[in-house]
UniProtKB/TrEMBL annotation:
Homotetramer. NCBIfam families: PRK05396.1, tdh. The record marks 148 as: Important for catalytic activity for the proton relay mechanism but does not participate directly in the coordination of zinc atom. Its cofactor is Zn(2+). Pathway: Amino-acid degradation; L-threonine degradation via oxydo-reductase pathway; glycine from L-threonine: step 1/2. Its main location: cytoplasm. It is found in: Cytoplasm. One of its GO terms (molecular function) is zinc ion binding. Keywords: Cytoplasm, Metal-binding, NAD, Oxidoreductase, Zinc. It catalyses: L-threonine + NAD(+) = (2S)-2-amino-3-oxobutanoate + NADH + H(+). One of its GO terms (biological process) is L-threonine catabolic process to glycine. This is L-threonine 3-dehydrogenase.
């Protein structure tokens, strides 16, 4: 089968030919229809320091996908051949303290599809049946192919009460932009997003959920707050840039008692003014992945109750044109880029 794999320890991704994976007792084989490119795939493509330490050479990459079940392991119950599915890319151990307590997203032994083991950029993907997420008919394959990052946005946004709150999102990447729509859907008052990339701020405006999309390289966030009549600060913050300065800017503009969820992955040497956290009595929560499967349930039900995040998909490519697709994604002039495998 055709796959996109990290064959060499240098910049790039390569098309490879591999055998269709063997299906274990508790596994499901999925024929892939659509995949989406994640920021993580771009790190792997660029072969940065993190990828060099993490990614085994030869591995098929990718973890955002939608497809159809074509084979079931002998022990699998509750799923059918022909069923349309997406799936959770975090594989958990099932026996650590959190797994046994039912807090599966907190598993201490989490392994990532397309990061620690064979990924989804392939004609077929084999994953444990418990990781499969069956799709209702009214969720399109396109939409399902971005459920993984959409889930990051939902997990982050629903971590704190949104109703009537003023929300600051730093970083208008695909996840930050999806978070604007979720915050609005969940009842926020002002939704302000920041970035330094005009293309992405424009895309955030097109999403139709922001009060203001602010380019912090050219505009002053304090002026925007004054204009909105915000005297004290933001109630909820979502850090979605991984940029230390953006996080510091957020801390400075939080209301006392404000709540922040951190999704963006900062550089190791990032420093902030911790006094702001203490004297403002802020609550800070780290976010990794999606809650299994509460986040997936919320994603589906919000889409079914009128949440529209479709503008986030800005590009489609046939898988054979994957090089162009990766270049577009890496350029920063894209929302989500979807690859078609059929
Ligand atoms: P992305 O890299 O596409 O978007 C980040 C955005 O932040 C970019 O548009 C960039 O221009 C912007 N930015 C840079 N400097 C800024 C500044 N000073 N102020 C405001 N914005 C600034 O990333 P994404 O795919 O949308 O993901 C968002 C973040 O979440 C990334 O850091 C990613 O690594 C991380 N992530 C975390 C998880 C998790 O489970 N914790 C999962 C997926 C992604
Ligand atoms: Zn576990």
């Amino acid at each position: 089968m055709k796959t996109l794999a990290k064959l060499h320890g240098e910049k790039g991704i390569w098309m490879d030919d591999k055998p269709v994976p063997e299906v274990g007792h508790n596994d499901v084989l999925i024929k892939i229809k659509k995949t989406a490119i994640c920021g993580t795939d771009i790190h792997i493509y660029n072969w940065d320091e993190w990828s060099q330490k993490t990614i085994p050479l030869g591995m098929t990459v990718g973890h955002e996908f939608a497809g159809e079940i074509v084979e079931l392991g002998s022990e699998v119950a509750g799923l059918k051949i022909g069923q349309r599915v997406s799936g959770e890319g975090h594989l958990i151990c099932g026996h650590c303290r959190n797994c046994r307590a039912g807090r599966r997203h907190l598993c201490i032994n989490t392994k990532g599809v397309g990061v620690n083991r064979e990924g989804a950029f392939a004609e077929y993907l084999c994953i444990p049946a418990v990781n499969v997420y069956p799709l209702p008919d009214d969720i399109s394959d396109d939409m399902a192919s971005v459920f993984d990052p959409f889930g990051n946005a939902v997990h982050t946004a629903l971590s704190f009460d949104m109703v009537g709150e003023d929300v600051l999102i730093t970083g208008a990447g695909p996840i930050g932009i999806m978070a604007t729509a979720i915050a609005r859907h969940a009842g926020a008052r002002h939704v302000v997003i920041t970035d330094v990339n005009e293309y992405r701020l424009d895309l955030a405006r097109k999403m139709g959920a922001v009060t203001r999309a602010v380019n912090v390289a050219t505009e002053n966030l304090d002026d925007v707050m004054a204009e909105l009549g915000m005297k004290e600060g933001f109630d909820v913050g979502m850090e979605m840039s991984g940029n230390g300065q953006a996080f510091q800017q957020m801390l400075e503009r939080m209301e006392h008692g404000g709540k922040i969820s951190l999704l963006g992955i900062p550089a190791k040497d990032t420093t902030i003014d911790w006094n702001l956290v203490i004297f403002k009595m802020l609550t800070i929560k780290g976010i990794y992945g999606r809650e299994m499967f509460e986040t997936w349930y919320k994603m589906t039900s919000m889409l079914q109750s009128g949440l529209d995040i479709s503008p986030i998909i800005t590009h489609h490519f046939k898988v054979d044109d994957y090089k162009e697709a990766f270049e577009v994604m890496a350029s920063g002039k894209a929302g989500k880029v979807v690859l078609d495998w059929t």
